[in-house]
Structures are given as C-alpha cells and as structure tokens.
Specification:
Elements: E1 15-19, E2 22-26, H1 37-53, H2 58-71, E3 76-77, E4 81-83, E5 86-92, E6 100-105, E7 126-130, H3 131-134, E8 142-148, E9 154-160, E10 167-173, E11 179-193, E12 199-205, E13 211-218, E14 227-231, E15 238-243, E16 249-255, E17 260-266, E18 275-276, E19 286-291, E20 294-299, E21 307-312, E22 320-323, E23 329-336, E24 340-347, E25 350-357, E26 364-365, E27 374-377, E28 387-393, E29 400-405, E30 411-416, E31 433-441, E32 447-455, E33 466-470, H4 484-490, E34 495-499, H5 509-513, H6 521-536, E35 545-550, H7 552-563, E36 570-574, H8 580-584, H9 592-599, H10 606-615, E37 628-634, H11 643-655, E38 661-666, H12 677-694
Parallel strand pairs: 33-34, 33-35, 35-36, 36-37, 37-38
Antiparallel strand pairs: 1-2, 3-5, 4-5, 5-6, 6-7, 8-9, 9-10, 10-11, 11-12, 12-13, 13-14, 15-16, 16-17, 17-18, 19-20, 20-21, 21-22, 23-24, 24-25, 25-26, 27-28, 28-29, 29-30, 31-32, 32-34
Helix pairs in contact: 2-4, 2-12, 6-7
EC number: 3.4.21.83
Domain Peptidase S9A N-terminal: 8-416
Domain Peptidase S9 prolyl oligopeptidase catalytic: 481-695
C-alpha cells in the first residue's frame, strides 16, 4: 500500500462513565452524534483517506467486479412457485440493480413450473412490482414485505429508502394495478392477511427499534383507524406476525432470546381476540405450525436440542410427543403439509430434512451426496401438495433448486444457479475445486469444525494464503455456501475457510450455550485455535492469513485482534459490534435490552460488566503490533451503530499508531451494506482486493 496520505485526525473529547465503581474515559464518544456536521466531515475524511490508500487497487477492483459480472447470468428468472392459480417468480435484467416480482396464471393441466430461455419474461407474465422503478431517485432501496392475499387480489408491500429498516407499507390492487390510498409509515418486517383478504396485520417498533406491536388494518381505510392487536411491554421480547400455510390462523410470535409465547387469531375471524397457545415460561422456547385438527409444537421444554409435540387446535392444552428429544440432533423447524410433515434439523454439524408421513411410522431422512453441504426448504406456500421445494448448495455446488416427491422420494433438479465462463473463457467445473472438513483443538480440549475449499492442487506446505471467516453468536450457523465472487480468490490460489466456533449453532444448542454470556470468550479462543490449526496443518501461514467477520462476527474480529494479533496479517470487520460494552450498558439504544439474554446485563450485574470489559474490542485496544485492519460500516445501520467502528479505528490509531487501519463508511446504507446487486458486487470487490493485497496476490 502507498503511505503518502495521512489519516484524518480524530479530536479527543474525553467523557466519563462510572459503573460498579469503575470509571471509564471515552475520548471518541462525540462520534455518536450522527447529526453533527463534524461527525459527517470526519467520516467523509476517513472515506477519502481510504480511497487514497487503496487507489493502487483500482484496476484489481475493476477486474474482480468484472469477473463476478461475467460469471453471473445477469438476465435470469427464478424457478416459479405455485400458489393458488398463479406461478410466482422473480426476474433480473442485465444492467438493472433490483429484481422484478412477477406472476403468471397456471394453465390447464400444467403441473411443472414454466421455464423461459435465458431468463426472458414468461408468456402471459404479470409484473407485480419492479424494484428498479421503485428505487428510481434513491441511493438505497430495500423491500420489506411482499405478501399476496389468499385470493390473489391484493399485494401488501413495504419499502425502505435509507437502510434504517423502517418501512412504508402500501397495498396494491392486482386486478387493476392501482395503488390504494392505504399507506402506513414506520412499519417493520412481517405481515399477514385474513382469510377473506379484508384485513392486513402488520408490525411496528418502539423508540428503541424493538418490534413491539401488532396492528390490524382494514383494507381501504386510513392508517389512523388501525387497531393494536397485541402490544408487548416486556423490553426483552420481540413480536412477529404471519399467516399459517393452511391459511386458517394468524400467528403472533412473541420471543426473547430464551423464552417465547405464541398467540393465535382465526384467519376467518380477524377481529377476534388473540388466544395464547401456551403461556410463556422463562427459558422455554416454542414455535407453532397449524396442521389439521392440531397445532404442532417445536419446543425445548426438557429437551435441550428440541422435541416435536402437538396439541389440540380447538382447545390447546397438553403437549403430546411426536418426536422425542435426541441429544446432538437439533430440531430447528417443522413445516406442515396436508399429508406430510417435514422437519428441518442438524446433526454432526450438517443440515438435514426428515419426512414424516401423516398416519404412518415410516419417517425417513433425505440423503444428500456431498460430505459438506447446506440444505433447507424453499418457498412452499401450498398446503395440499405431494411435493416440496428444496434449496441445496455447498462450497463447490452452486445454489440448486429441487422438487422432492414426498411419496416416491424422487428428487428432480429444476435449476442450478448458472456460473458462466470466467475471464479465461473456461466454464465453471466443480471438479477443479475441493472441499474439506477439518478440526481444530480448542484450549479446553473441545474439537472445533472447520470447513475449507480451494482449487485442486493448492499446496499444503504453508505457502497458500487463506481467508478465515467466522461469526459465532445467536446460535446462527455458518453452513457451507457457494459464492461466485469467492471463485476470484480461489483461482488466485487462496484457501477459503469457515470456523464453526462456539456461540453458533452448528453442533446444537449446547454449542451455542458454550459461547454466550459468561462463556463468550470461547467464541474468540475457538477462532484463534482454528487459525493456529490451519498454520500447523500446512493450509497457510500466519503472514498469509486474513480473518473476516461481520456484525457480531465483527466483535469476533476485534476480540481476536486483541487476543492474538500475531495470528493474522489482516482483518476485515464489517458493520462490527466492537464497542459492545458501551452499547449494552445503554438501554435507550436500539435493541440493547433484548440483547441482555445473549451477552448479560452489565448495567445491573458487576460480574457481567467485568467480563464484558475484559473482552470488548474498543475497551482493550493496546500498544501492540496489530495486523492491518479494514473496517466497513454504514451510516444508517440501526443494528450496529456506525460510531462503533469509527471510535475503534480512532483509538487504534491513537494507542497503536504504527498499525495500518482503514475505515470505509457507506453514507446511504444500513446493516446489510449497499442494496443494489452491482453495488454489492463492487463492495465485495473492494474487500477482496484489499485481502489479496494483504496476502501478496494482488
């Protein structure tokens, strides 16, 4: 990298806070003032500095973007999904940032989804929503709700043009194409229609951006006339709303990180009062799926990895077991169809699907061929069906859509995401790549799985560079996934690895519990153990190893930078939660109170306070030799505030000034970064160019 440009100077304005007798000085707290012109000027100066420091990578960024573009079939069409009398699908068009939502009427005798050549519009197509038209004049666009009413007449959809995840909800008449005057501002994700499509339920958030209310809106009326159906006053809990696949019930899901409660309203009586399926009990989680005369209950009551039961749909009461708890087999979801149940699960670190025919004991697991893969149900809106739509991928297999016959057990590939020839003109061949499962040994003797992919013939003598990705929070699993942009790294000799560390859900609920609250440091030491193992096993060397993580994975990045700065030559932290203690101490910030069951409550518990202070990245910056760090954030992010990485980079420069630190802020985006597909490709090209530069493959 060039070094002629000096980084912007972050002024120091010391502010103090005291908790449990401990006084902390924060010199950069002023950066949290988003509306202060000085803050915007500073972030702009940081962007200019980053641009100058990475100017020499402009050609490489252009090459990486072009490689992604050339390998992507830009004009494409998703496999249509049937609901009622229509096939629903999404089209993309070359040169356009956003998808086009469409449908086409089902024709007589038509059972298989229609296809088109090269992603062209289907004959008889009806355009429901064109994201490109909606996004005109806006730097950011995101679609929240997209919900067609049971009779197919109305479309409820919501839009966000800033990235703050507050959406404006509208209703479109699909018979005339006209927008109704109905308009509801500041809504959240989640909608549900009544059976007769006269009523729409939706969700709003409180001042801390917590989804706390479910509303009932009568189509054609003013938003001012809407009625609150459920309000959740316990600040630990979120609410959500959905219509069951059977279209018989509206479900209101109320959940914290460790406790849940579900209320139901008959879809045929939308003005009825919500009824509780089972009252909340601290530490008991359950979800509900309607199936004929019963509600299916997936729960952890005395079942660490969850069990499946049912109760009466007429008078919910006792839970009757269907699948007993099996330690090590984590049941994650159940989908009900008229004659079959499909259970999504994971065991031995891999996802799976179990089919239970109704009225039969002949349940079975669906087999898949690769040693590493990710599988799950795709959109399946039809309740009365004999087949289900699956989505499958691996580190070397592009996203694939299958229809699976629940009776004959035949699986038919409908579409695999096209990967077009790269810059050398050669078509993508998965046989040129190989994937592996390896295991690292953590400090406490725990075996931690690692998934790896590289080109065939990549040396194992420590000379290959490597990118190690991690997350490790909220029981979220980093299951193997295919990436077109990643091919540009693999083809340059880079090994890509995923550390399946504790705090995630790859190995069940216990794996998650061992990486949260007062066991959170296991997440960080597991990741370092994976890095050390990759070096010891000859996959790479520490001076050729770059770590990458986002959001809570960004907290991981900051923590391992402090814990083992010698283990990496570079660290990419995207929307990183690096000032965790400050945020979790402030209940007025978005989502803080709901997070206390994940991290602990340092406001009331001195042990939690001391523990978090010992690992939170911003608090623990030291005068050591850090690896190069690239922090990427977004000004309108409501989940992890931009000020966290901004403060972190400023403190790194002040305390360890010899390091190489860059901050890149998207000035018009949210937690997910740029919204358009071309913009997101450019963002990925920027990051990958920086990685290649760090490992000597630029």
């Amino acid at each position: 990298m060039t070094t002629e440009t000096a980084p912007p100077a972050a002024k120091r304005v010391p502010s103090e806070r005291t908790h449990h007798g401990d006084t902390v000085v924060d010199e950069y707290a002023w950066l949290a003032a988003k509306d202060d012109p000085e803050t915007i000027a500073y972030l702009t100066a940081e962007n200019e500095y980053t641009d100058a420091r990475t100017a020499h990578l402009a050609d490489l960024r252009a090459d990486l973007f072009e490689e992604t573009r050339r390998r992507t079939q830009e004009t494409d069409l998703s496999v249509p999904t049937r609901k009622g009398g229509h096939w629903y699908y999404t089209r993309t068009v070359e040169g356009q940032q956003y998808g086009v939502q469409c449908r086409r009427a089902v024709r007589d005798g038509e059972t298989d989804p229609p296809v088109s050549a090269d992603g062209a519009p289907l004959d008889g197509e009806e355009v429901l929503l064109d994201g490109n038209l909606l996004a005109e004049g806006h730097d950011f666009f995101s679609l929240g709700a997209f919900d067609v009413s049971p009779d197919g007449r109305w479309l409820a959809y919501s839009t966000d043009f800033s990235g703050d995840e507050r959406f404006t909800l509208r209703v479109k008449d699909l018979t005339t194409g006209e927008l109704l005057p109905d308009e509801v501002p500041d809504t959240f994700y989640g909608t549900a229609w009544s059976a007769d499509a006269s009523v729409l339920f939706y969700v709003t958030v409180d001042d801390a951006w917590r989804p706390n209310r479910v509303w009932r809106h009568t189509v054609g009326s003013a938003a001012a006339d809407d009625v609150v159906v459920h309000q959740e006053d316990d600040e630990r809990f979120w609410v959500g709303v959905e219509l069951t696949r059977s279209e018989k019930f509206i479900l209101i899901d109320v959940h914290s990180k460790v406790t849940s409660e579900v209320l139901v309203i008959p879809a045929g009586n939308p003005t009825g009062a919500p009824a509780v399926i089972a009252p909340r009990r601290q530490g008991v989680e359950y979800t509900v799926e309607h199936h004929g005369h019963r509600f299916l209950i997936l729960h952890n009551d005395g079942a660490e990895d969850f069990a499946l039961a049912f109760t009466s749909a007429d008078v919910p009461g006792d839970w009757v077991p269907l699948i007993e708890h099996t330690p090590g087999t984590r049941l994650e979801a159940v989908d009900a169809f008229a004659n079959h149940l499909v259970v999504s699960l994971r065991t031995d670190g891999l996802t799976g699907l179990r089919v239970l025919p109704v009225g039969s004991d002949d349940g079975y697991d669906i087999d898949f061929p690769e040693p590493l893969y990710s599988v799950g149900l795709d959109a399946n809106p039809e309740y009365r069906t004999g087949q289900v739509r699956l989505r499958y991928s691996s580190l070397i297999t592009p996203d694939s859509v299958y229809d699976y016959d629940l009776v004959t057990r035949q699986m038919v590939l409908l579409k695999q995401k096209p990967v077009l020839p790269g810059p050398d003109g050669r078509p993508y061949d998965p046989a040129e790549y190989e994937q592996f499962r390896d295991w690292a040994l953590a400090d406490d003797g725990t075996r931690v799985p690692i998934s790896l992919v590289c080109r065939v013939g990549t040396p194992r003598d420590g000379s290959a560079p490597c990118e190690l990705y991690g997350y490790g929070s909220y029981e979220a699993s980093m299951d193997p996934w295919f990436s077109v942009a990643r091919l540009s790294l693999l083809d340059r000799g880079v090994v890509f690895a995923v550390a399946h560390i504790r705090g995630g859900g790859e190995l069940g609920r216990r794996w998650y519990d061992q990486g949260k609250l007062l066991a959170k440091k296991n997440t960080f030491t597991d990741f370092v153990a994976c890095a050390r193992h990759l070096v010891k096993a000859g996959w790479t060397a520490s001076d050729r190893l770059v770590a990458r993580g986002a959001s809570a994975g960004g907290l991981l990045m900051g923590a391992v930078a402090n814990l083992a700065p010698d283990a990496f030559t570079g660290i990419v932290a995207q929307v990183p939660f690096v000032d965790a203690l400050t945020s979790i101490l402030d209940p007025s910030l978005p989502l803080t109170v709901t997070e206390w069951e994940e991290w602990g409550n340092p406001l009331d518990d001195p042990e939690v306070y001391a523990y978090m202070k010992s690992y939170t990245p911003y608090e623990n910056v030291a005068a050591v030799d850090y690896p190069a760090i690239l922090a990427v954030t977004s000004l309108n992010d409501t989940r992890v505030l931009y000020s966290e990485p901004a403060k972190w980079i400023a403190r790194l420069r002040a305390v360890a000034p010899a390091g190489d630190y860059l901050l890149k802020t998207e000035m018009g985006a949210g937690h997910g970064g740029p919204s358009g597909r071309y913009d997101s490709w450019r963002e990925e090209a920027f990051i990958n160019a920086w990685i290649l530069d760090r490992i000597g493959r630029a």
